[in-house]
């Protein structure tokens, strides 16, 4: 591959020293973030259902809830104030303290 | 003027920050490309006869041949010993500087050297020339080379055969257009555009809420193509966009069209040669385009907000690459957006608005404000949908030709807004679901029978555009207020 020649005061990567640039990202990679271990069964576990407040999201979550009932899970329903903003930190904490697992529904 | 030392400058290699020692005796720093240095060659020859003399030469290692010059084309001596002018004559003893003089002045040189009758036949005085070590085109590169870097970001070494532009695409750093490779020298130059230090935290960038430093934002501003003098506007825009009120996270994640629209007010718009006139929303102005682009690159690269991931826009809009313009203040009959939002008329500010567009308002016939404002209202009613209200915000951008019609009739911005509020208070029966055979609409008619199209504070009014064209524009907003986005204005700090 050929390289473009930069201006006189700027190094080109062709032929001379390798060009060094600065990383414009936050430097995080997805590999650093591991999901929590998956439970082998939902029976007897408390499962939070987080409604993000999109219209008709509750219809979908009702179906999930009846399915989870059949699996023997205890279901607790939560609702974000608005789908346009991240869940408030207090709500996230409440879910983390009360539930073994959580399902967040995004509907559109 | 030729710049031989600059031609081969390699900014990628950092040299030890070691200060070259001062040899005892007299030290002269010269360059061939300086008439005064050429003039005083006989003086240097004279001084070489009388005692120890070291001559450092900045451009041509062979100049002046008669006094066996020392090569300083890497400019290490000049940079470390703060040479600002050539010739500079220094007297050193025991490694310490005792005295220095710059340019040619017979009395000063005679006093410093203790030698009489210097340069017989030369004029008494000649000013010197600028030292290459303070040449503006080299200064940041030399700071990187000799000064040790203050920058904390990870260095990414590109392979020799890697095209730096392709490399940025390969690593996912671009918005779909090529970016300027963010070399350390360019980032250092960008940082000089602001008085803030590189390590200062500016904002937590959504969606990942990454705490971003001035340095990290400078890297993205370089990539966007900003000049260093634009950088304070970029920093203010990032601050404004990352407030809870503006809600950049939600704006990014929405399936709707909108993105951040930047409106810049104040004298800064003239200093940066921003466009508030013809084609202000369009192509062709570097400041408009690169400042808006820098904000979006910050959200992408530092916040992790990328299309198809957190950004789930159904169609998006071309303004999501960059949407930034200046308000046309100099002949506006209206108070500016910044003044209306509580800032001084001479303050430099940037306002972020969640929007997209433009949508056209065509009215080439109205010559009275009463008629023209009705055109505005009927077009504004269509924002989002003519049967929806209090959901979507809007920005009305009034053109100079339209604004003149209001000005000539004595209407100020408050009058225009009041008339629009009145015309956009709509009988609810026209808005409910099913009316006109359209299922979309308001679920029910409110008790008082009237519906305001926009929430209080949901309609912004700005003056911009070219001299000719009896059109104005609507920038369709996103969901306004607490459940969506509130416009935010931040003062630009130098």
Please state the overall shape of chain A, judged from the principal axes of the Cα atoms.
elongated
Amount of beta strand of chain A: 15-25%
Helix content of chain B: 25-40%
Which stretches of chain B are poorly predicted, pLDDT < 50 over at least 5 residues? 1-14
Question: Could you please describe the fold and organization of this structure?
Answer:
The complex is a heterodimer of chains A (108) and B (494). Chain A has helices spanning 57-70, 89-98; strands at 20-22, 46-51, 74-79, 101-105. The two termini of chain A are 44 Å apart. A three-stranded parallel sheet of chain A has the order 3-2-4, with helices on both faces. The longest helix of chain A is centred in the middle third of the chain and has 14 residues, at 57-70. With 108 residues, chain A is an alpha/beta fold. With 494 residues, chain B is α+β, with helices and mostly antiparallel strands. Chain B is 28% helix and 20% strand. Chain B has 17 helices and 21 strands. Chain B has helices at 4-7, 35-39, 41-50, 76-80, 106-113, 139-147, 164-170, 184-191, 214-224, 231-241, 248-253, 268-271, 286-301, 337-340, 369-380, 400-408, 413-423; strands at residues 25-30, 53-57, 70-71, 85-86, 88-93, 96-102, 104-105, 125-126, 129-130, 155-157, 201-205, 210-213, 259-265, 324-326, 349-362, 392-398, 425-427, 450-452, 459-463, 471-479, 488-491. In chain B, the strands form six sheets. In chain B, strands 13, 14, 15, 16, 19, 20 and 21 form a seven-stranded mixed sheet that branches. A five-stranded mixed sheet of chain B has the order 3-2-1-5-6, with helices on one face. In chain B, helix 6 packs across helix 8 (184-191), helix 8 packs across helix 9 and helix 15 (369-380) packs across helix 17 (413-423). Chain B is elongated and about 105 Å long. Mean pLDDT of chain B is 93; it is low at 1-14. At the A-B interface, strand 1 of A face strand 10, helix 7, helix 8, helix 9 and helix 11 of B.
